[in-house]
């Protein structure tokens, strides 16, 4: 299991378009990917689950990746979230 913490810097947080981009990015990863906010976990492969967390700009979230090459994918996902734009 690989874990990371990141502060969301995208202006709109992880709502609508950025959330859809995130789901597209993780959906082909063969393992499990979860986002954690305030102790609530969400499956990052589900746009409904991601949006249910209500992640806004400046929110610190956790990333949990379990599966093949999990450390490498966790780093890629962290970079992806860092570089999200509206």
TrEMBL record:
One of its GO terms (biological process) is phosphoenolpyruvate-dependent sugar phosphotransferase system. GO terms for cellular component: cytoplasm. Gene3D superfamilies: HPr-like. InterPro entries: HPr, HPr-like, HPr-like_sf, PTS_HPr_His_P_site, PTS_HPr_Ser_P_site. It comes from the Bacteria. It is found in: Cytoplasm. Keywords: Cytoplasm, Phosphotransferase system, Sugar transport, Transport. Residues 1-86 form the HPr domain. General (non sugar-specific) component of the phosphoenolpyruvate-dependent sugar phosphotransferase system (sugar PTS). This major carbohydrate active-transport system catalyzes the phosphorylation of incoming sugar substrates concomitantly with their translocation across the cell membrane. The phosphoryl group from phosphoenolpyruvate (PEP) is transferred to the phosphoryl carrier protein HPr by enzyme I. Phospho-HPr then transfers it to the PTS EIIA domain. This is Phosphocarrier protein HPr. It comes from Anaerococcus porci.
């Amino acid at each position: 299991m690989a874990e990371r913490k990141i502060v969301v810097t995208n202006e709109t947080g992880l709502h609508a378009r950025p959330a859809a981009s995130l789901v597209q990015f993780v959906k082909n990863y063969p393992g499990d990917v979860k986002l954690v906010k305030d102790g609530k976990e969400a499956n990052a492969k589900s746009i409904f689950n991601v949006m249910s967390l209500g992640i806004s700009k400046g929110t610190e979230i956790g990333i949990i990746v379990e599966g093949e090459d999990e450390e490498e994918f966790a780093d890629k996902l962290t970079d992806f979230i860092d570089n999200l734009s509206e």
